[in-house]
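Section: Multi-chain targets

For targets with more than one molecule, the full set of components is provided together so that the structure can be written out for the assembly as a whole rather than chain by chain. Components appear in the order listed by the source. The example entry contains two components.
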Amino acid sequence: MADYTPSEMMIVSAARALAGVRTVFVGVGQPNIACNLARRTVAPDLELIYESGVYGARPARMPLSIGDPTLVSGATSVCSLGDLFGLYLQGGRMDVALLAGAQIDRFGNLNTTVIGEYARPRVRLPGSGGACEIAINARRIFIMMPLSRRAFVERLDFCTSPGHLTGRGERAALGMPGLGPQRVITDKGLFSFDETGEMVLESLHPGVTLAEVQGAVGWAVKVAPDLQETAPPDAEELRILREELDPKGVYRR
Amino acid sequence: MKLLSMHDAIAALVHDGDTVAIEGFTACIGFAAGHEIIRQGRRDLTLCRMTPDLLYDQMVAAGCARKLVFSYLGNPGVGSLHCIRRALEKGIPAPLELEEYSHYGMVGRYTAGAYHLPFFPLRSYVGSDMPAVNPRIRMVESPYGDGPIAVVPPLNPDVAIIHAQRADRSGNTQLWGLLGVQKEAAFAAQHVIVVVEEIVDESVIRADPNRTLIPGLIVDAVVHEPYGAHPSYVQGYYDRDNAFYLRWDEISRDEAATRAWLEEWVYGLPDRAAYVAKMGPDLVERLRPGEAWADRVNYGEYR
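Its structure, encoded as tokens over all components, is:
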């Protein structure tokens, strides 16, 4: 039995993926912890950008929302939302954005709008927020969400935020500035995107089988020929995570 | 003349059928104003807000709204807005029309409204299903040969309600912390109500003009309403009541519990002062932040 949780493996994997990155767009919860872990390990120059208009936040407590006042006090800059989306995002200053969704398809397109029909939704989800323009403009998109058959679907009910649409090259043809989804970081394994723009399993987390991953994905998963095993969290990563970033264990379960 | 009670400001400036924008991104959400609109029984409002938040959830539950114009329909950091979902999924208490954008789309709409432009171009929506369900999001060809670009139409609310830290009696309003889209929403609106934690002397405003987001020029009414943004927060004045945001998740799941809450905290109280008294001194104390002052800046004296 591993001495860490699947969530901890996911957070640590996301932090490692941010090695050398300068600016990351981030929400609350697990992505937030991943970014703070990255800043203490592989990306000391990493600056966190929040949708609420905060650049270079230094939160003194764990924020419940992206608009928490602890993100403002001590930040490098706080700007209007016009400046946030116009200057930082559209101006090309966001290297990586961490996104998630209720549904994702094999091309990394994301749904955060509705389950069911738009006009008669079975479940009404929050909608885009800034995700639609972030998916289009941020240089690279990393998607971070636990693997499940309900979320990893053959066909989205609604495409809120475009990934590679129906294949590589389509984004560029439509004039989208960003490169689109580059990685999908889950609690069971890590995916990249191949030359066709489709998700490919690159690495299984320790103790996870290929059958388990396939069982949690609604399409036939492409597997890299040199499928790896993810290095487990090391003692320092776990120490920072458990003692400094999430001492109550809210996001590590 | 501009300094009014909340009751009188809402009675004078918010009418049935109006398009109303109560802005403030997580911070400075005008709950006191929204509750007064509920108390005065306004109906058929088109409610505009990037993040409808608990306030519009409550206003929809109270039957004030005909339509929502928005970009993120969630309880931030918690989950769903259950009253709005009940209206959309079950038509309770009444069906609700949606006009849905992304965040930058909403910013663009207010900006075009404030600048008197016919539309606002933005690099968004391409490849998304959002334009398919909102025909007001369009694609146009750049006249300079750079290909297609998404555009959104101007949004000019009948009234914008802006909560802030302080203003003088003429409505010159200073705001710090998260700036959201308040300036654009105020300049886009036909009428503006500012609601502030403190009324200060004009000299306080003039000593720090860079911090003045909204000039009295565009303000119709100033309301002095301490704790008027609770359970959201005002930077430097009080913290976000995250416990209430979590509790609302439970209350709002149940229609009867929601009605009981509205009865107890809105209909059953005459005004915000009574609400603050009902909050109690312990809660008020618990939400008081520590201090973190900025250095003073020297604007210089030029004679």
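Chain B is about 35% helix and 20% strand.
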